[in-house]
Amino acid sequence: MVDAAVSDPLRLRDDEPLEEPAVTLDAFTGQPDATAVRLEAGDDARALIPFLDRLRLIEIAFPRFRDGRGYSAARILRENGYTGELRAQGDVLVDQLLFMRRCGFDSFAPEAPLDPSAVADAFARFPDYYQTAADHAVPIWQKRAQDADRG
Predict the structure, then answer these.
(1) Per its UniProt record, what Pfam families does this chain match (predicted)?
(2) Is the pLDDT of residue 9 over 50?
(3) Which of 19, 22, 103, 115 has its CB 3.0 to 4.6 Å from that of 38, i.e. a possible disulfide?
(4) How many CB atoms lie within 10 A of CB 30?
(5) What angle do CA 59, 60, 66 make, to 5 degrees?
(6) pLDDT for the residue 16
(7) Rounded CA Rg of the chain
């Protein structure tokens, strides 16, 4: 698993078994003590909003790299206050990692192993952004305005 928290953009670690396995969204509604849930590609992330404070892990499935619904789910969860681990699992490619992180993912469980140097390159590729996102990076236009105000 690649863990890419914003504070530590590249930290590699082996898969760590959860104390409690992630349950499906359907099973989650019947398990009031569950703290880990897995969203499949067609699941509506908004169903978890009332429970975000009790969740430690939300794993979002990417059945195919071209399926972008997981990006939207991550952004919805982060914008509604979810602060726990948000994991992208499945057909996750190195080219997607930076954009997944911008949407709020902070850990990755790809089906195929990723080269650590390629992961580091992917996260370093774009040091500045024009738009705001769930990662709270300051957009370049705002940095430029702040520099102009100082100078």
Answers:
(1) DUF934 (PF06073)
(2) no
(3) 22
(4) 8
(5) 150
(6) 55
(7) 16
Q: Which amino acid is at 24?
A: T
The structural domain count of the chain equals 1
- The structure tokens listed for 42 are 């067609």
Contacts by residues 88-92 (CB-CB < 8 Å, ≥ 24 positions apart): 88/60, 88/62, 89/38, 89/59, 89/60, 89/61, 89/62, 90/61, 90/62, 90/63, 90/64, 91/62, 91/63, 91/64, 91/65, 91/67, 92/62, 92/65
CATH number of the domain at 32, please: 3.40.50
Helix/strand/coil percent split, the chain, to 5: 35, 20, 40
Which residues have C-beta within 8 Å of that of residue 69, sequence separation ≥ 6? 41, 42
Reported residue count of the chain is 151
pLDDT per residue over 81-96, tens digit each? Answer: 999 999 999 999 999 9
Residue 57 main-chain phi, psi, to 5 deg: -140, 135
Q: How far is CA 149 from CA 87, 138, 142, in A?
A: 39, 16, 11
Q: Which two tokens stand for residue 67?
A: 């399926």
